[in-house]
Automatic annotation (TrEMBL):
Chain ranges passing through the membrane: none
Organism: Triticum turgidum subsp. durum (Durum wheat)
Entries under PANTHER family matching the protein: NITRILASE-RELATED, OS06G0206000 PROTEIN
Protein name per UniProt: CN hydrolase domain-containing protein
Cellular component aspect of the GO annotation: mitochondrion
InterPro entries per UniProt: C-N_Hydrolase, C-N_Hydrolase_sf
Length: 128
């Protein structure tokens, strides 16, 4: 993870090979793409970022991961994303015209499968 900053991309500044590729494919195929993780450098901080690119090739939303992964098993492994990445500050909501996504959850899932599955989704998001 120490080398991650050397791979960081400037999404807002238009210098992101990853997002450029997603934009080209989305526009060529006339589809919406949710793509990430992209190491994004912004304001001197490194974020784990995902972009939603619309069928016109434009970025519809940009999400910076809120809940950074961490594990500490004494005597075995310790890993914390927060040692490298800065957590995002707010959930991201984007309407793609087909599904609405919120912080990595597909809210359309609830409409299709029923509200009893909502708590399962929330529990999973809290623990990821």
């Amino acid at each position: 993870m120490e080398t991650m900053p050397s791979y960081a991309e400037d999404i807002d500044g238009g210098r992101s090979p990853s997002v450029s590729m997603l934009s080209e494919v989305a526009a060529a195929r006339k589809i919406t793409i949710v793509g990430g993780s992209v190491p994004e450098m912004a304001s001197g901080q490194l974020f784990n970022t995902c972009c939603v690119v619309g069928p016109d090739g434009e970025i519809k939303a940009k999400h910076r991961k809120l809940h950074l992964f961490g594990i500490d098993i004494p005597g075995d492994i310790t890993f914390r994303e927060s040692d490298t990445f800065t957590a995002g500050q707010e959930p991201t909501v984007v309407d793609t015209g087909v599904l609405t996504m919120l912080d990595g959850l597909v809210l359309g899932f609830v409409m299709i499968s029923g509200s009893q599955n909502w708590q399962c989704c929330i529990d999973q998001e809290v623990h990821t």
